[in-house]
Amino acid sequence: MNIDFQKLIIQKHVIDSSAHEKSKKLSVAYGVDRNFLFGSGISMTSVLVNNPDIDIHFYIATDYVDDDYLESVKRLTQMYSTTVTVLVFDNAAFRELPSTKAWTYAMYYRYFAFEYLSTELSSVLYLDADVICKGSLREFTEVNFCGEYAAVINDIDEVRIKSGNRLGIPELSNGYFNSGVVFANLEVWREQQLLTKAFSILDKRQKELLYFDQDVLNILFVGNVIFLRRDFNCIYGVDQELKNKNDKVYQDYITDDTILIHYVGVTKPWHSWAKYPVAKFFIDAYEKSAWAEKSLLNANTAKLYKRKSRHERVQRKYIRSVLSHVMYIKNKLHSSKAY
Fold first, then answer.
1. Partners of residue 136 on adjacent β-strands
2. Are 84 and 95 within 8 A, CB to CB?
3. What is the DSSP letter of 223?
4. Are 164 and 176 in contact (CB under 8 A)?
5. How far apart are CA 156 and CA 92, in angstroms?
6. Residues 327, 331, 332, 338: what is their CA dihedral angle, to the nearest 10 degrees?
């Protein structure tokens, strides 16, 4: 797939309210569709709140933006003296890539971020929009690449151990990383033409892949990464609270040393029913953000209404749970009629 990524840009909004006086500098990128714009705003806020000593330039690679989001981004840059570049691109080529209901083609937007930014940056910290910062990112500013493709963090043991066998690469059983936090060496990305190689792997090994974009990056990067400690990608899902016997179990995972929390799963901390202590790190940033006056998000699909109903039942909000289940059925019937 030969694509001129520069030509895919539909709009480019550079919103700069920084004096650029800090000695430490860090570029941070997100690749999101409209469903994750809100989350990206709070994630950026969490980074800013916890890193006042670093001059941070954020890049948002997205297929959709509206005036409301841009206005909030502008307020954010003014509140925290930072810079945000919003790159709105034509995603037609990405819609042709392998995806599932659980993993939409938006997962490949990190590829767009790496490829586009490789023309102007030597490195970038890529974060999923459901990653919240609660500590210093200074360590990323001190990473010295010696030809490695990226600095990464191992995925949870269950995923990591199985992935080596699944992909036929034994080395990945010990070193399969999660792509929600990737500090990418963009000089190597460009020199080695890693995007072309990524698309080649995607084409040739599509049937073997489970976590499409993540699997491809692991196959591509194997043996060429720096592994960072778990503190930089602590994986925890709000949906785990459905099975936990109490709402303090998260403290066994998220500690005082945790720097980046990755809220995986269907329920995100920005959902109105994610009312658990584990969401407090998101809520703290949300209340300090340019989105603080906006409501947390409600369910808008059958899948989300079903999950909302389950959480409300666990929270003993039985009437709400029944109503959410009714909405789940209505949305499911509506979507089936659409086909």
1. none
2. no
3. T
4. yes
5. 33
6. 160
Phi and psi angles of residue 69, each rounded to the nearest 5 degrees, phi first: -65, -45
**Averaged pLDDT score across all residues of the chain:** 92
Q: Give the chain's length.
A: 339
Please, which pLDDT band fits residue 130 given cuts at 50, 70 and 90?
A: very high
| Pairing outcome for strands 181-185 and 131-133 | unpaired
Cα 234 to Cα 253: distance, rounded to the nearest angstrom: 7
The terminus-to-terminus CA distance of the chain in angstroms comes to 30
Q: Provide the 10 A C-beta neighbour count for residue 193.
A: 11
Sheet holding 150-152, edge to edge: 9-16, 83-89, 54-62, 24-32, 123-127, 181-185, 150-152, 225-227
Helix (H, G, I), strand (E, B) or coil at 93: coil
| Residue 266 confidence class, pLDDT cut points 50, 70, 90 | very high
Q: What pLDDT sits at residue 213?
A: 87
Q: How sure is the predictor about 92, in pLDDT bands with cuts at 50, 70 and 90?
A: confident
Judge contact between 182 and 149, C-beta under 8 A: no
What token pair was written down for 276?
Answer: 């658990």
Q: Collapse the DSSP code of 115 into the 3-class scheme (helix H, G, I; strand E, B; otherwise coil) and give the result.
A: helix
The secondary element (H helix, E strand) that includes residue 160 is helix 157-167
47-65: average pLDDT: 97
Percent of the chain surpassing pLDDT 90 = 79
